[in-house]
Write a structure and sequence with these properties.
The complex is a heterodimer. By secondary structure, chain A is an alpha/beta fold. Chain A has five helices and five strands; from the N terminus they run βαβαβαβαβα. Chain A is 43% helix and 20% strand. In chain A, helix 1 packs across helix 5 and helix 3 packs across helix 4. Chain A starts with a strand and ends with a helix. Chain B is of the alpha+beta class. Classes of the chains: A alpha/beta, B alpha+beta. At the A-B interface, helix 1, helix 4, strand 5 and helix 5 of A face helix 8, helix 9 and strand 15 of B.
Chain lengths: 123, 503
């Protein structure tokens, strides 16, 4: 079976590296984008199975990337997991619950646990 | 007035009279038979005793009967006195205190107030009141039972962004209330249905113009009265608390920002600690060091979550999403999660779970925080002993799922016990030796109470402590669950439409 493709949109270099390492070890094909703009470009062209999306990234914010993919590019079928350390207001929380396929707080899980979390997502 | 109310009242009254007569007859027969069997009095003495006892008993029954049957009349009379402007000291009848003929009396009393209100409406009074209201720099709005605005001042119209007046419009067509509004609407319904007069206050109520979420925060005082003029049933006075609540808002924004900034390095530390653990090979000493590092990262991470949840709770924004939670699985996950920290302090956590434990209605994220806090405390306050930490759970006799975290440490002094769930309360003896903030048990109680459960503590100085909390079975709260069923929630996140075995 072909390895699943994951795009990590994460501006914190070390976090991106740690996640990439754990997901490679778990057998995924991994691409990391360090800005919102670069991430959106990759998301629209890279045919990813899963997108791990941080909210606070330079350029286009994570929540806006989520909306753009879901509403302006319905042809993109990637599962989108929000991985954030930010606390959201009620409105953002509802919007994430409506549009995203998963949500996790980065500070509370390890990269290996993240890989386990992603393993449970049915593509 | 409904005829059925009147008929119901007549039927009940007749039943009470019949019951009283039967009671007197029954008592008379028993008294006579009793006197015959158990006394050796002559017939005349027996007759004398019998007549005396029955006279007193009948009198008591008559007084009670009279009081019960005429009570509705006295309530109606009180309402008539109350609406009479000359009787300034008269108070409105409290319909909660009436049992016989409640519906009938409520209907008659309401009609008295309605009729009185119609006759006492005074345009002169209204015209002199409104300019005075405009001088008051807070929104004042009067509404009728249907939510139509009958009275308002200029400040309220400005807030609604309406040039002339909001009078004549429906409240919910021109204003938005934040989530506190649900409680207010519920109160309005209850007061309208059951009370003649009522009042209530709420703190931190967000009010904005329709289609805006730019809330201004007020303390709200509402007074409901059927006897008010110009058709206004409820007067809503919004006391401006901008200074107080905007300061709280700034404090919360700062905390949210600080939490974000703290979590980023924590994520990195947690990640590299895991990498180091994988790379240490057989070097047990190094493995132990890394374990200690991970335990500290866990502690700091829980501490950050505590701060955030306390801030949310204090701002009345701690939101729980109750869902069906497999309590055995969640307990086992929390034990795994806290294992590293326990091992660092040479502690073992024992978990006792009975078979067939029903699922609970819980918010996995916050209830995990309760368990982690209790376990963390148990570890901290029993560090001098080698005894284990025992966690047990059961379905208690009242039908709640009861969970206990027990340590065999130093216990809590009696003088400290009444304050342990208060904010910033700490076991003073350990203040210097054991790290802590005094927020853990405070947020535990807030979270457990928000779940509809209770938390309690038992401790004996020198013999350890025992913390017990209860949760509802899911079947008890299933009807209140408004959560999106397609989302499977875990302690640190959620997944849509997938099975979530961890987190």
């Amino acid at each position: 079976m072909e390895a699943k493709k994951i795009l990590i949109i994460e501006d914190e270099k070390f976090i991106g590296e740690l996640y990439k390492r754990a997901l490679l070890q778990a057998g995924y094909m991994v691409t990391v984008a360090e800005s919102g703009d670069k991430g959106l470009e990759e998301a629209l062209t890279g045919n990813f199975d899963i997108i791990l999306l941080d909210i606070m990234v330079p350029g286009i914010l994570g929540v806006d990337i989520l909306k753009k993919i879901k509403y302006e590019h319905p042809e993109i079928k990637s599962k989108i997991i929000i991985a954030t350390n930010l606390e959201h207001d009620e409105e953002t929380r509802k919007s994430i619950e409506k549009d995203a396929d998963g949500y996790l707080i980065k500070a509370e899980i390890t990269p290996v646990e993240l890989a386990g979390f992603i393993d449970q997502i049915e593509i | 007035m409904s005829k059925s109310n009147l008929q119901q009242f007549i039927d009940k009254t007749q039943s009470i009279i019949l019951f009283s007569l039967l009671l007197i007859a029954g008592v008379a027969i028993l008294a006579w038979l009793g006197l015959e069997k158990y006394t050796e009095f002559s017939f005349l003495v027996r007759l004398g005793v019998f007549v005396t006892v029955m006279t007193i008993f009948s009198l008591v029954i008559s007084v009670l009967l009279n009081k019960t049957i005429t009570k509705p009349l006295s309530f109606i009379a009180s309402a008539v006195y109350h609406v009479d402007p000359k009787n300034k000291s008269a108070s409105a009848p409290n319909l909660d205190k009436i049992h016989l003929g409640r519906e009938l009396t409520s209907t008659v009393v309401r009609q008295i107030y309605d009729l009185s209100g119609t006759h006492t409406k005074s345009e002169v009074a209204k015209n002199t009141t409104e300019p005075i209201l405009d001088l008051i720099k807070m929104p004042i709005i009067g509404i009728d039972q249907e939510g139509n605005i009958k009275l308002s001042n200029a400040h309220a119209s400005q807030l609604a962004n309406i040039a002339d007046t909001v009078v004549g419009k429906k409240f919910n067509e021109v204003f938005n209330l934040d989530e506190a509004g649900n409680d207010i609407v519920e109160w309005l319904k209850t007061s309208g249905a059951n009370q003649v007069t009522d009042s209530k206050s709420w703190s931190r109520v967000g009010l904005a113009s329709k289609n805006s979420e730019d809330y201004h925060y007020y303390d709200l005082s509402a007074s409901y009265s059927k006897h008010s003029s110009a058709g206004t049933d409820t007067l809503l006075c919004f006391f401006d608390q901008l200074d107080k609540y905007s300061a709280e808002e700034d404090a919360f924004s700062f905390i949210a920002l600080a939490v974000h900034e703290l979590r980023t390095p924590l994520t990195i530390l947690r990640g590299y600690a895991e990498v180091m653990e994988q790379e240490t090979g057989d070097n047990n000493e190094l493995r132990d060091y890394v374990k200690r590092m991970r335990a500290s990262v866990d502690s700091l991470s829980f501490f950050v979550s505590n701060i955030l949840h306390v801030a949310r709770f204090d701002k009345q924004e701690l939101k729980l999403t109750l869902s069906e939670t497999n309590w055995s699985e969640l307990l086992q996950r929390v034990v795994v999660q806290t294992k590293t920290r326990a091992e660092v302090f040479d502690k073992k956590i024992n978990l006792e779970i009975p078979d067939n434990l029903p699922s609970v209605g819980a918010d996995p994220t916050t209830i995990t925080e309760v368990l982690v806090n209790l376990i963390d405390n148990a570890i901290k306050y029993s560090s001098k002993t080698t005894a284990d930490i025992d966690i047990s759970t059961k379905l208690n006799s009242e039908g709640f799922i009861e969970t206990t975290v027990k340590d065999h440490g130093e216990g809590i002094p009696e003088s400290v016990m009444p304050h342990i769930f208060e904010k910033f309360s700490r076991n003073h003896r350990n203040k210097v030796r054991v790290a802590g903030t005094g927020l853990g048990l405070y947020i535990c109680r807030a979270i457990v109470n928000a779940h509809g459960g209770v938390i309690s503590a038992r401790s004996k100085d020198g013999s350890g402590s025992e913390f017990t909390f209860t949760l509802h079975r899911y079947s008890e709260v299933a009807s209140q669950n408004t959560d999106d069923q397609s989302i499977i929630r875990g302690s640190h996140g959620w997944i849509k439409n997938h099975r979530l075995n961890r987190n």
